[in-house]
Amino acid sequence: MSQPLTIAKFGGTSLANHAAMQKCARIVLNNKATRIVVVSASAGVTNHLVSLAHTAMTQQQTGEVCEAIEAIEMAIVAQLQNPAAVQDKLDDLLTEMRALAQHEEILQREDLKDQLLSMGERMSSLLFSAVITELGNPAMNFDVRKVLRTDSEFGAATPEPEAIASLSTALLAPELEDAIVVTQGFVGADEQGKTTTLGRGGSDFTAALLAEALSAQVCEIWTDVAGVYTTDPRIAPNAHPLPELSFEEAAEMATFGAKVLHPATMEPALRNNVKVFVGSSQAPEQGGTWIMRDCEEEPPYRAITRRKEQVMVTVKTPKMMYAQGFLQQVFAIIAKHRLSVDLVTTSEIAVSFTLDNPANSVAQRLNKETIADLETLCDVNVEHGFDLVTVVGNHMQSATGVSSKIFAAVADYNLRMICFGANPHNMSFLVNEKDSTSIVQHLHKALFE
Ligand SMILES: Nc1ncnc2c1ncn2[C@@H]1O[C@H](COP(=O)(O)OP(=O)(O)O)[C@@H](O)[C@H]1O
Ligand SMILES: N[C@@H](CC(=O)OP(=O)(O)O)C(=O)O
User: Fold this and answer.
1) Which amino acid positions bind substrate, per UniProt (predicted)?
2) Residues 199 and 185: beta-carbon distance below 8 Å
């Protein structure tokens, strides 16, 4: 049997500075099976890069943002025992970053934007491999673009698992013999070798894709909380970590707003039955959450999530009465404009649906053209200012009393849309954004405290 393999992913806050990186390096070295490390950019760096790629700036402003990024990287280099070992390579990366930031077409060209966004992970992986090496274990910085094949949808590229598996077997697996491989999350490359990115928070997805490709037994997601909690501990201070979760529950939680995991992470893990562990890189002794196919318990309520900035569209026409094919026409328009529908409720003459607002792109894409297309069919009303609250659990549609307990907890609030029953794992409702924090707190109290 081949050697056991664990892939460890560290998020931005875990790699914010040299001391935090050293804690991460010890986690890696404490487990002999961990031979691939996937890193995010150090905290704050991707946000700076996004502002460079998307905002019109004066030369001076561009310079200031580049300096802020350089300061984060140089503070880490300054703490290395042998800064000279990485300085030249880091200088090359900083030069590439500045050239991209100052490129006259940076605001227009999606390929350049992705190249610029990749710089954070390319720098953090260089520095983190140096930190591991300094703790006495050989480590190499591997360019993930050699293996993480995607389509050419810059900014939100779709990975190609078969190509990733064969490229990883050919090019990445042989490197594991001699050193711990440190590579970049979030970044990929298309068939022409152009740099792509997987969307914000995409490093978790990278780790799961590589774990699938190389049939790793475990994919560890090291972050700033000791596991997946009953709800975001920033919303409800009494939230507590969950010892276990199923792939389905975790996928629902991530899709419906639990930022601790990227929504696509569970797909590769499920396909190749890779167990996923979530824990705190700064307090690994606290343990964490195991996400796997079969859990010991399947409670009706497992967690509550919130997704912010939802957009609700209501389309209405008397022609819908007794008509056939109306919904199909509405959704064809939505699909044509590459929007994704989440919740749907219908009446005889109206349909309301919500559109997620990933990285604010819906607001941009739900443009006049989409609305004009819909208006050829019906009256259209677009409303903003909503959050989506979801209770995640098991057998929710078939157990008695599940919904009444939830509704009792939120009886004093106005719920705009309710979706329940399509899936045994969730119940969702749209609420006014000003109410969502107290709704989550009330629900948490009723279901988990
Ligand atoms: N159910 C949840 N359990 C744990 N953390 C959650 C949950 N929902 C949201 N979060 C938030 O996710 C954050 C971790 O995600 P993120 O900041 O993306 O980490 P990283 O940079 O390590 O990828 C936590 O600090 C927490 O506030
Ligand atoms: N650096 C990227 C990718 C990522 O996954 O980051 P993090 O693991 O810190 O959420 C981002 O900020 O989107």
Assistant:
1) 46, 121
2) no
Asked if residue 259 has its Cβ within 6 Å of ligand 2, the reply is: no
Q: Which of 334, 385, 351, 356 is nearest to 256 (CA)?
A: 356
Residues sharing a CB contact under 8 Å with residue 233, sequence separation 6 or more, in sequence order: 225, 239
Measure 82 CA to ligand 2 centroid, in angstroms. 27
Residue 7, strand partner residues: 36, 219
Q: Are residues 63 and 95 in the same domain?
A: yes
Q: Is 38 in contact with 187 (CB distance < 8 Å)?
A: no
- State the Cα–Cα distance between residues 449 and 437, nearest whole angstrom: 16
CATH number at residue 154: 3.40.1160.10
- Residues near 313 by beta carbon (within 8 Å), at least 6 away in sequence: 352, 353, 354, 355, 366, 374, 380, 381, 382, 383
Q: Mean pLDDT, the chain, as a whole number?
A: 93
Q: What CA–CA distance (Å, rounded) separates 221 from 14?
A: 11
**CA 100 to centroid of ligand 1, rounded, Å:** 30
Q: Do residues 212 and 165 make contact, with C-beta atoms less than 8 angstroms apart? A: yes
Same domain assignment for residues 118 and 227:
yes
CB of 202 shorter than 6 A to ligand 2: yes
User: Are both 227 and 156 inside the same structural domain?
Assistant: yes
Domain count within the chain: 2
Residue 185 sits in the same domain as residue 45? yes
What are 381's two structure tokens?
């009303």
Q: Which ligand is nearest to the CA of 261?
A: 1
For 223-256, write each residue's pLDDT tens digit: 999 999 999 999 999 999 999 999 999 999 999 9
Q: Binding residue per annotation — 11?
A: yes
Spatial neighbors of 366 by CB under 8 A, at least 6 apart, are: 311, 313, 337, 339, 355, 382
Contacts of 65 by beta carbon, 8 Å cutoff, 6+ apart: 48, 51, 52, 57, 101
Give yes or no for residue 358 having a pLDDT over 60: no
Flag whether 140 is in a domain: yes
Q: Which of the 8 DSSP states describes residue 184? A: E
Residue 29's domain spans which residues? 6-292
Are 275 and 312 part of one and the same domain? Answer: no
Which residue puts its alpha carbon closest to atom 3 of ligand 2? Answer: 201
Side chain identity at residue 318, one-letter code: P
90-99 residue pLDDT tens: 999 999 999 9
- Centre of ligand 1 from the C-alpha of residue 228, in Å: 8
Q: Is the CB of 357 under 6 A from ligand 2?
A: no
Question: What digits encode the pLDDT tens for the residues 270-315?
Answer: 999 999 999 999 999 999 999 999 999 999 999 999 999 888 999 9
